[in-house]
């Protein structure tokens, strides 16, 4: 009732006053910050009215992608936590699709945004302004040579579109190769790169895109227990000699087959996510990308790393996912975590390749907007100052190790994989067949986890993989809480199957 909420708000304001007077750091004192955030939940539009508008005034696709049978009505966030309009708290382990990198409403990033909003909201790069150039220099300093030239966009789809055009302009070739199961965006051109039927429309998309076999060592034809760079390996048996992966050799043979049968002798580019995101946190055999890049360059193509989900320290061991593979791409695309959820994307490439873009004029009105640049700059600082890359490695390794124990416990958990806080849990009917768990059973577990207070994602070609990609500020306690919740949800599922 209004009376109850008004009382709650008054208590919340006193709590905030107490925290301020005592100089309590809310980001490190959840017992106070949680209460304050719950207390500021306000009355607004009813859930029924929001759904009515969603159905009548929003594009139908909005309803199609709405998670859960009973949707979550998000009102506020703080670090790794979200609250709905009723004040219920959720541990956010999906981060708005791997987008909130340093934490919801992170105080440092929020302060940077506020400072810039008071100074200048918008101008474009037809003018020279400090925040754009300060950020471009800072971003480039976080990449290896010769990747030093930056172009800012508003999204990963825009960045990948631009990378395709740049590769074709620079090489004079047309054909692009991507992995099966890949996802590179939702624009008309980037959907041509995508290899997942759920994101394909019966209309012409970008021509000249060819998909090659994804070197998936769990679901693919070849794979074993020593293939991937991950704290947790697949349960498939492996007879490879030490330091030599037969699965890698077989998948490279398939790439050679693609070159021999499906594309011209000269190509424009090869696109690869260091770890597939929407595809279900799929990892490749060690050294696969290194050999693949060599084959692509022999055919005149550029090597493009799509770091939209893996970048900015999420994989833990490195700032960028491609570094784990021992390669340096010709172009790197990025978005999502780049600005902690503020719309932004980028490509970074070499001076030589960037010069090929001068054959006409390209202009992005909002790319490098002052507020976006200020936020993105603060994100880079925060990743370092808060030690979030190391936290991703430590918490992610712990979480995967604990999830692997559940894999060994339950027949329907087929695989646990990933690096840092880029984690996938693939669900199966049984370990022998590796057939995907049905969408209905996946939804039961998904809903159960949500009802117990944790938000995760789903992915994979068949929607059979739970995706765990939280803000990088999550703690060991958060990881243990999720493991307990997931254990209970899977246990409930198994009990229903027995009945």
TrEMBL record:
<keyword id="KW-0809">Transit peptide</keyword>
<comment type="subunit">
    <text>Homotetramer.</text>
</comment>
<keyword id="KW-0496">Mitochondrion</keyword>
<dbReference type="GO" id="GO:0016223">
    <property type="term" value="F:beta-alanine:pyruvate transaminase activity"/>
</dbReference>
<keyword id="KW-0663">Pyridoxal phosphate</keyword>
<dbReference type="InterPro" id="IPR049704">
    <property type="entry name" value="Aminotrans_3_PPA_site"/>
</dbReference>
<dbReference type="GO" id="GO:0019481">
    <property type="term" value="P:L-alanine catabolic process, by transamination"/>
</dbReference>
<dbReference type="GO" id="GO:0009436">
    <property type="term" value="P:glyoxylate catabolic process"/>
</dbReference>
<keyword id="KW-0808">Transferase</keyword>
<dbReference type="GO" id="GO:0008453">
    <property type="term" value="F:alanine-glyoxylate transaminase activity"/>
</dbReference>
<dbReference type="InterPro" id="IPR005814">
    <property type="entry name" value="Aminotrans_3"/>
</dbReference>
<dbReference type="InterPro" id="IPR015422">
    <property type="entry name" value="PyrdxlP-dep_Trfase_small"/>
</dbReference>
<dbReference type="GO" id="GO:0030170">
    <property type="term" value="F:pyridoxal phosphate binding"/>
</dbReference>
<dbReference type="InterPro" id="IPR015421">
    <property type="entry name" value="PyrdxlP-dep_Trfase_major"/>
</dbReference>
<dbReference type="Pfam" id="PF00202">
    <property type="entry name" value="Aminotran_3"/>
</dbReference>
<dbReference type="GO" id="GO:0047305">
    <property type="term" value="F:(R)-3-amino-2-methylpropionate-pyruvate transaminase activity"/>
</dbReference>
<comment type="similarity">
    <text>Belongs to the class-III pyridoxal-phosphate-dependent aminotransferase family.</text>
</comment>
<dbReference type="InterPro" id="IPR015424">
    <property type="entry name" value="PyrdxlP-dep_Trfase"/>
</dbReference>
<dbReference type="GO" id="GO:0005739">
    <property type="term" value="C:mitochondrion"/>
</dbReference>
<protein>
    <recommendedName>
        <fullName>Alanine--glyoxylate aminotransferase 2, mitochondrial</fullName>
        <ecNumber>2.6.1.18</ecNumber>
        <ecNumber>2.6.1.40</ecNumber>
        <ecNumber>2.6.1.44</ecNumber>
    </recommendedName>
</protein>
<keyword id="KW-0032">Aminotransferase</keyword>
<comment type="function">
    <text>Multifunctional aminotransferase with a broad substrate specificity. Catalyzes the conversion of glyoxylate to glycine using alanine as the amino donor. Catalyzes metabolism of not L- but the D-isomer of D-beta-aminoisobutyric acid to generate 2-methyl-3-oxopropanoate and alanine. Catalyzes the transfer of the amino group from beta-alanine to pyruvate to yield L-alanine and 3-oxopropanoate. Can metabolize NG-monomethyl-L-arginine (NMMA), asymmetric NG,NG-dimethyl-L-arginine (ADMA) and symmetric NG,N'G-dimethyl-L-arginine (SDMA).</text>
</comment>
